Amino acid sequence: MLCGGMGNQLFQYASGRALALEQDCRLVLDASTLFLKDQKYRRSYELDLFNLPSEIGVAKTIVPLFNLKLRSACLFEKYFGRRSARIIIEGDSSRFDYEDKLTNLQSHVYLYGYWQSVNYFKRHADQIRDDLTAKIQVPDILQAECVDLSSADSVAVHVRRQQYAQQLPIAYYRSAIATMRQRLKRPRFYIFTDDPEWCRQADLMADYVIIQ
Fold first, then answer.
1. Do 102 and 88 form a contact (C-beta atoms < 8 A)?
2. Which residues lie across from 87 on neighbouring strands?
3. Measuring CA to CA, how many Å separate 16 from each of 10, 45, 121, 137, 194?
4. Residue 157, SS3 per DSSP
5. Across residues 133-147, what is the average pLDDT?
6. Which residues touch 3 (CB under 8 Å, ≥6 apart)?
7. How far is the CA of 101 from the CAs of 21, 144, 147, 188, in angstroms?
8. Which pTM value belongs to this model?
9. Is the dihedral angle over the CA atoms 50, 54, 56, 62 positive or is it negative?
10. Is the dihedral of CA 108, 114, 117, 122 positive or negative?
11. Mean of the pLDDT values across residues 41-60?
């Protein structure tokens, strides 16, 4: 089941894709259930911006049932000719922690969660990168910036503040920036943000580029 913005959807896709590759079975993305309930942010399916493999199914028109058992039964009947599936729900711990729930599984499972740990899919990282090629071409005005990004030890810093209650403190960003300076010889920081003025006033670092 997909939910959230593009970043969340990418994690969910990568984890599901890795599991499907290991089980040698088809991956189907539930691309409507939680988006129908997202009245606050009104987010939608965004992975159609990528050239996903043709064998990946995208369920956008399943009957809008929010009960997981009924929902998974409808989806599996449509795509696999059966109504039973094991539902795997991410635990209550930090969503960034790895859980041993996706190992030694058989096919016909329905994943519910964010699955935001690279350990779920790093063994298939190359294949997943090949899957996620963009359909659109980079505009000419951004080509030079893309060259700069690929020619340096680029670090993306995501600062989200608008329409978001859980705003991180400045200390969090400064600690992360200090860590990257220790790990990289010549890091170049690119700030992706919806609040550039706050980033300038926060004085997070001396050398950075703001991408709006």
1. yes
2. 110
3. 10, 16, 8, 27, 30
4. strand
5. 78
6. 9, 12, 33, 34, 35, 38, 43, 114
7. 16, 43, 40, 37
8. 0.79
9. positive
10. positive
11. 89
